[in-house]
Structure formats: C-alpha cells, structure tokens
C-alpha cells in the first residue's frame, strides 16, 4: 500500500499526462497528496467494520467511555499514517518524475499535509458511520475515493470541470489541501494559504460532526435491529 499502490497510481496519471502534454509536476504533486485518502478514508472506515466483523463492537459500545473521543480518537493514528504515505509519494515525485521541491516552504507544507489528513479523516468517519447499518461499507469507500480523483483537482484544475459540477469540489477538504500544498511547494507561507486552510477546517469539522451524528443514529438503530454483530 505504501510503495506499490502510491507509485503505480502516480505513474499511471503522470504517463497519461505526458502523453497529453500536461504539467507533470502538477499531476505528481496532486497524486502525492491524494494518497493520504487511502489511509484517512479506507482505513478509518474500516475501524468500525473490523470491530463489527471481529465481534468486538458490542464490547466497545458497552464501555462507559464518552462516544465522541472514542469516535474521533481511533482515527488519529491514520492521520499520521497518511502523512507518511504523502512523504513517500513526494520522494517518488522528486526522484522519479523530476518534481522540484527546492523552493518549498517545508514547515508550511507539513502543516498543510497534517491539516488535510485530519480533515479528510472527518469524511472517513462520516462514511464509517454507515458500518453500523450496511453490510459492506467498503463499497462506499471505493466510490468516494475515486470521486476524489475527479473533483479535487488532483490531475487537472477544478476550473476544468463543467461549471455546474465545480461547487461539488469544494465540499471535500482534499480540494483545499491540494491547492494549499501546491502553493507551499512554490514557496507560499501559511499566511498566504490561510484562506484555503480555514475553509478546509470548516468543511472537515462539519463532516466530522455529521459523521458523529450518523454514528449515534446508526448505533441506536443497530441496537434495535441486532446489526452490532456481523451477519
């Protein structure tokens, strides 16, 4: 997942971009930051799913611990795991595809990547709430992850989308994170990207709290229908 998947995805889109005479660095950077979605979406969604299939979900929900820290806290490791995926992807982008990071504001870039991973985990938690109700929520994870490739400016600017579809791009934190990441690689400071980061945090927190609300809703439904256990 860390090496083969990230390299194969980046290579595919970079070679397609070269064939179409597009900006290779633009594509490589977008895919490098997008790789965190495999951790912050797939892995976070799988937290509840694994508990359900392993039979530990009823034990977890029987504890007196507050739900919100449990809900959010278990996603934290995947944020740092996502940052590691991005770091490896940037190494590929630099060593194999000639992306120049010499002008990057490294501290600002690290903060942007962290905040992007944090807010993206909110969307992972939102979709993960469906684990209580649906047999296989990973179907949603697959759909959602590939939607990100289309709408978040990974391989082409959001402005290239049909105008009616462009507003959809801005409900995903990754759109703001990729844009801010590209700017910091060009040397922008945190002040320069503060607007993008602020918008990203707002969207991410909204997703996180909507996800928590769905988590509690489906938890109550699962108790009534017996779906705390895998079918």
Describe this structure in words.
By secondary structure, the protein is mainly alpha-helical. The chain has one domain. The protein is 72% helix and 0% strand. Helix 2 runs antiparallel to helix 6, helix 2 packs across helix 10 and helix 10 (173-185) packs antiparallel against helix 11 (194-225). It is elongated. The relative contact order is 0.16. The model has no long low-confidence stretch (mean pLDDT 86).
The tally of domains stands at 1
Tell me what portion of residues adopts beta-strand conformation.
under 5%
Largest sheet: none
The average pLDDT value, as a whole number, equals 86
Count, helices: 11
> How many β-strand runs?
0
Cα distance spanning the termini: 28 Å
Encode the helix/strand succession as letters.
HHHHHHHHHHH
Which key terms come to mind for this protein?
0% strand, 72% helix, mainly alpha, 231 residues
Offer a concise description of the structure:
The chain has helices at about 5-20, 25-35, 35-55, 55-60, 65-75, 75-95, 105-130, 140-150, 165-170, 175-185, 195-225. The radius of gyration is 18 Å and the shape is elongated. The chain starts with a helix and ends in a 6-residue tail after the last helix.
Topology at a glance:
Layout: H1 4-19, H2 24-34, H3 36-54, H4 57-62, H5 67-73, H6 76-97, H7 106-128, H8 138-151, H9 166-169, H10 173-185, H11 194-225
Helix pairs in contact: 1-2, 1-6, 2-6, 2-10, 3-6, 3-7, 3-8, 5-11, 6-7, 7-10, 7-11, 10-11
